[in-house]
Amino acid sequence: MKITMKSFTSFIVALALLMTATAANWVDAARARATAAAEPYVKQGFLVRQEFWGGSLPAGQPTVVRQQLFKGNTYWFWLGSDEPKATVSIHVYDEDGKLCDAESWQKGAAAGVKVSPKRTGTYYFALSVESSPKKRTSWALAYGFK
């Protein structure tokens, strides 16, 4: 069978689309878990933002997300994983590196942290996949405020 440039290009495009769709499914599953973790807080009056962060991490190699927070608001951030057997964690730090968790919880593939900033500024969220049966585990971070 002779491979033409056109058939090779079509194969590469199809492969790229398949990989993108698969990656999107992982992030969607992680986002669904993070959003499900937010449900009890919506009943408490927290408004969940449409924006979210997502990615994948190997276990034990944390990443950091930066976010501007405003004094006077209370925020909840919810981390979810696409892997039900994963364990994830999240903590928040101010510009000086001081831990700012007002409240936090961790339940397997979901975790949450509450912060009520004492001043407006940039805050840093340390996200970690503590353990997972996968080599890399997808995650999504959602947040709400009131």
Keywords:
alpha+beta; 146 residues; six-stranded antiparallel β-sheet; Jelly Rolls
Task: Give structural notes.
The chain is α+β, with helices and mostly antiparallel strands and 146 residues long. It has a single domain, classed as Jelly Rolls. 26% of the residues lie in helices and 40% in strands. The chain has one helix and nine strands. The chain has one helix at residues 5-42, and strands at residues 47-48, 53-57, 63-69, 75-81, 87-93, 103-107, 110-115, 121-131, 137-145. The strands form two sheets. Strands 1, 2, 4, 6, 7 and 9 form a six-stranded antiparallel sheet that branches. A three-stranded antiparallel sheet has the order 3-8-5, with no helix packed on it. A hairpin with a 2-residue loop joins strand 6 (103-107) and strand 7 (110-115). The longest helix is centred in the first third of the chain and has 38 residues, at 5-42. The protein is globular, with a radius of gyration of 18 Å. It starts with a helix and ends with a strand. Residues 7-24 have low confidence and may be disordered.
Q: What is the string of SSEs from the N terminus onward?
A: HEEEEEEEEE
Largest sheet: 6 strands, antiparallel
Instruction: Name the structural class.
Output: alpha+beta
Mean pLDDT: 86
CA-atom Rg in angstroms = 18 Å
Uncertain parts: 7-24
The CATH architecture:
Sandwich
Number of strands: 9
Straight-line N-to-C gap: 63 Å
Number of contiguous helices: 1
**CATH fold annotation:** Jelly Rolls
Principal-axis shape equals globular
CATH class: Mainly Beta
Beta-strand share of residues: 35-45%
State the domain count: 1
Helix fraction?
A: 25-40%
